[in-house]
Amino acid sequence: MTSTPPVLEISGLNVNYGLGAKAVHAVRDINLTLHRGEVLGLAGESGSGKSTLAYAVTRLLSPPGVITGGEVTYHPREGASLDILDLEPEQLRAFRWSEISLVFQGAMNSLNPVHTVRSQLTDVLRAHRPDMTAAERQERAASLLSLVGISADRLGSYPHQLSGGMRQRVMIAMALALDPEIVILDEPTTALDVVMQRQILKQLTRLRNELDFSVVFITHDISLLIEFSDRIAIMYGGRIVEEAAAKEIYQAAHHPYSHGLLHSFPALHGPRRELTGIPGSPPDLTAMPPGCAFHPRCPKAFEPCDQRVPTLAPVPLDEGRTVACWLHADH
Amino acid sequence: MPKSPDPPSTTTGPPPDGEVVLEARAISKHFAVRRTLRNFADRNRPVVHAVDDVSLKLRRGSVTAVVGESGSGKSTIARLLAQLYPTTSGELLLHGKPTRVGQGRAFRAYCRQVQLIFQDPFGSLNPTHTVRYHLTRALRIHDRAGRTADDLEKALAALLERVHLTPPERYLDSFPHELSGGQRQRVAIARAMAADPAVLLADEPVSMLDVSIRLGILNLLRDLKERLDLAILYITHDIASARYFADETLVMYAGRMVEGGDSETVTQRPAHPYTQLLTSSAPDPDRIVADAKARAEAATDPAGGEVVVEEEESETAGEPPSLISPPSGCRFHPRCPKAMERCASEVPPRFDLADGQWAACWLYAEDAPKQAAPQEASA
């Protein structure tokens, strides 16, 4: 997967909530690359900064969120690369959704309850493709719905007439309306049942193969990510602590937090193991512990952990993997 | 509505080692739908069949899980067992005696025995009061506060220690917003334990919590079960956690119990087609080993590759039915891959299988075609 060219490169991204001394550092020094056609999983608990990262990348962050530094470089198929953080509002409006689109967690809240699916789908097209005629828009909306497996006669329905799964599919259809290069899914199936979740994710995988876009898949459910993504980045306390191919992380997690997270999900098959989860609770972003944010909960913490912050570095002897942990640093 | 024959004899669970504390016999709950102009004149007001004909037994020192999708009626069961609202039909037996409490004294006496923990620890604690207030109130109501301030203080400390919030004085005077989700849920559990109940009804106790602390809460509940010999009802949508935590698992679909038995048996050899669908849909990292092989084959053979991805995608495959007019017969038959003629007309009773497992599915009737052995789930 790493052989394909990058489509999105995030480097040194920092996001704060609030200003001055009281600012909360929600995302710190993120370096992340999304390759063309890849599904990148972003896992972490609530408050780990994964959604903030998604909003920062699409510049949807609303105050008091501030991007305090870093670059987000987008590489289009043709033409020059551009830094999303430098775009003027006008350019940004044209760029967003046609290149990067988002699917939010609660489809119930993202669809307007007083408009039909038709008017919400055609609205996107009207804004971005002013040269399309009404009939063309209508046709495109119908084809988008059938793309996600909903019959076109549901165009006239209001959101409340659709089930939760169908609403989420409408959101996906809307995200695909302008053939974006990148689709960011922010907990797309958390509100759905497992049966529906699997159907939607299978459909997404199929659409990705057909339409060839890249996916950033944000969720707290790491067992889901292992099945559906190519690479996984695990976030804790606003930083990426480990990044590797999905299978490798499952087989041998290097960071103690990733290891703990993987052992927080009871398995459905295989031997019944005694599981402990991770002791303690996720860090308070307003009072982060010094050094590695995970050290108060870490079973393997030793002398440098509570003083110096480990940086995300390649794992010796293990190609393509990075981890931010003193256990794996050569010093 | 056809009833399963004689509920007491068919409620088979694990070997009946623990004494049955709370039992539900064929309970149903229907909620009236608001009258609209269209059905104003109808004689039969439409109702939502939230729970139909459910029987279960909660035993001392044992965890019973109820697994189902949202809308399957699993939370309604917890509220019915807590007697927060009356059953439409059927009866509840506490220690073998039928009980039906309304409000007031009888309800309070029932509460002392049966306590409920809610899903949302952010909503179930009053944000304007401290932990001390919440626990003191529960202790006072259930007459366990003792006579002196010293007794009360001891009781409070004991409660917090029981849920592993130590040292107690650090938590007693904090407000809910000062605690993390896991700590809040522990306070909610401590409050339930203040009544010294025999039964604990846990309605999705961990689904709102961060993944890394969920197991801590489940292990705490298990520890309480073992030390205090509690009967626990664990309501969840996550069948893997039911396997981990519960001794017995019951599976619900659209208001009815479809399968039950020992947790290990139900998750490893699901008998009902719905349980099979549920276990095959649950995320399972172990599957990627098999998947990776399939993908590697698909890569070498592009024609065959797409078939793997494009299996079942019929439009209604994932939709549970409307409970206002539920499907006739087995409620799963419109989605069931193995549906027979009979499934659409007759409600299947419970059929007993090996090892205390049972399934409400016509596949297991005496006269059914013999191909239907419980499926090995290792797909």
UniProtKB/TrEMBL annotation, chain A:
Record domain ABC transporter: where: 10-262
Matching SMART domains: AAA
CDD domains: ABC_NikE_OppD_transporters (cd03257)
Keyword Heme assigned: no
GO molecular function terms attached to this record: ATP binding; ATP hydrolysis activity
PROSITE patterns recorded: ABC_TRANSPORTER_1, ABC_TRANSPORTER_2
Matching SUPFAM superfamilies: P-loop containing nucleoside triphosphate hydrolases (SSF52540)
Keywords: ATP-binding, Nucleotide-binding, Transport
GO biological process, alphabetically ordered: peptide transport
A Pfam family it matches: oligo_HPY
Residue ranges the record marks as coiled coil: none
Family note: Belongs to the ABC transporter superfamily.
Name of this protein: ABC transporter ATP-binding protein
Organism (species): Streptomyces sedi
From TrEMBL, chain B:
Pfam families registered for this protein in UniProt: ABC_tran (PF00005), oligo_HPY (PF08352)
Biological processes annotated in GO: peptide transport; transmembrane transport
Region listing for Disordered, in residue ranges: 296-329
Domain of life, source organism: Bacteria
Keyword terms, alphabetized: ATP-binding, Nucleotide-binding, Transport
Ranges for domain ABC transporter: 22-279
CDD domains from the UniProt entry: ABC_NikE_OppD_transporters (cd03257)
Signal peptide: none
Keyword Transport: yes
Keyword DNA-binding: no
GO molecular function annotation: ATP binding; ATP hydrolysis activity
Xref: Gene3D superfamilies: P-loop containing nucleotide triphosphate hydrolases
PANTHER family: ABC TRANSPORTER, ATP-BINDING PROTEIN (PTHR43776:SF8), TRANSPORT ATP-BINDING PROTEIN (PTHR43776)
Protein name stated in the entry: ABC transporter ATP-binding protein
Organism: Streptomyces sedi
